[in-house]
Amino acid sequence: MRTHIVLCAAALLGACQFGGRVEGFPPATAPRGARVSLNGTPAAELLLVQDTALVVLLRVGAGSRVTVAPFRKIRTADFEHLGADYDFIASTSPDQELLARLRVVSRYPQGLTAEQMAKLLASLGQSAPDSMP
Q: Per residue of the chain (133 residues), what is the pLDDT tens digit?
């Protein structure tokens, strides 16, 4: 009898879901980084998180440009679908805990080598990343 109760309880717990679902988390459903709006600009894709800057892919006309946004130039960063825990307001670097969470939702959470960055830039017709004004 006791074994029967334990098996039933295990089956019921196995049918339950805890937490969110992948289908409801856009950064997990496609090979792209999270969408972010910096200083009220149209949303860009978060490519890479550095210790002093965000590297984003901005849509410019019909194309895209790799752009480096130093934290000192960012007044507001609003991340789509991630909640207020990811957004920040200020012109200083976010804390290390937030940087770690942002890396996970970037396109390149492991970072990029210089060679990989050069290939990415070349594919977009750039020789170097743009700097955020």
A: 666 565 555 555 555 554 445 445 455 445 568 899 898 888 899 999 999 999 999 888 778 999 999 998 988 888 888 877 777 776 567 888 989 999 999 999 999 999 999 999 999 999 999 998 7
Token pair for residue 6? 């334990």
Q: Which two tokens stand for residue 82?
A: 């991630």
The pTM of this model reads 0.75
Residue 1 token pair: 């009898």
Which structural domain range is residue 82 located in? 32-131
Please name which of 130, 44, 55 lies closest in space to residue 79, comparing C-alpha atoms: 44
Alpha helices in the chain (DSSP H): 2-15, 96-104, 114-123
* Within-domain flag for 51: yes
Distance CA 53, CA 40 (A): 17
Residue 61 lies in a domain: yes
